Amino acid sequence: MTVARIIEEQRKTTQSGKAQDGRWTLEFERQEAQRPDPLTGWNGSGDTKTQVRLRFNSKDEALAYATRKGFEVHIVPAPPVSMKIQAYADNFR
């Protein structure tokens, strides 16, 4: 059975806007182990599903897609964002 992760995307630290908040990504977990290529030494495998990333506007849309396709699902929520609000003058105390 194909295993998929549904991941809540995090806002980048350099972004202050909330336009892309609430987006979810469906990724497939690796089905076979990576092995070094004898010629180049790079790691790789024959599993091409790990290259696929599907983006959804909500968790429900991603979950509905995964259940419709028959994937086993692991949901990974984004960690909570904690902001410390301080004044510029606090840097010189």
Automatic annotation (TrEMBL):
Coiled coil: none annotated. Residues 1-12 have a biased composition (Basic and acidic residues). Pfam families: NDUS4. Its main location: membrane. InterPro entries: NADH_UbQ_FeS_4_mit-like, NDUFS4-like_sf. Keywords: Electron transport, Membrane, Respiratory chain, Transit peptide, Transport. Gene3D superfamilies: atu1810 like domain. Residues 1-24, 29-48 are annotated as: Disordered. It is found in: Membrane. This is ETC complex I subunit. It comes from Sphingomonas caseinilyticus.
